[in-house]
Amino acid sequence: MSDPVIVDTKGMKCPLPVLKARKALKGLAPGAVMQVLATDPGAEQDFVHFCKTTGAVLDELRREEGVLVFVLRKPA
């Protein structure tokens, strides 16, 4: 398995984190994993909606030193 694509959106406000993630997701192969790093407090709710609309799977959500880390998998 290859390393996940990392999409750094720290410091960006809604809707930029989701827009950058959507663009990155398009370039991934089915089943590929990406990590999105975000500091916008609204990003958690935004990515729940993002997964519902794109079919992406939220494998993990964690906080690391004030940064939200979303681990997303592109649907097959």
Structural class: alpha+beta
The strand order across the widest sheet is: 1-2-4-3
Radius of gyration: 11 Å
The separation of the N and C termini measures 15 Å
Largest sheet: 4 strands, mixed
Account of the protein in words:
With 76 residues, this protein is of the alpha+beta class. It has 2 helices and 4 strands. It has helices spanning 16-26, 43-54; strands at residues 5-8, 33-38, 57-64, 67-73. A 4-stranded mixed sheet has the order 1-2-4-3, covered by helices on one side. Strand 3 (57-64) and strand 4 (67-73) form a beta hairpin. The longest helix has 12 residues, at 43-54. The radius of gyration is 11 Å and the shape is globular.
Please render the helix and strand layout as text:
Blueprint: E1 5-8, H1 16-26, E2 33-38, H2 43-54, E3 57-64, E4 67-73
Parallel strand pairs: 1-2
Antiparallel strand pairs: 2-4, 3-4
Quick synopsis:
This protein has a four-stranded mixed sheet with strand order 1-2-4-3, with helices on one face. With 76 residues, it is α+β, with helices and mostly antiparallel strands. It is globular and about 30 Å long.
Question: What tags apply to this protein structure?
Answer:
alpha+beta; 2 helices; 4 strands
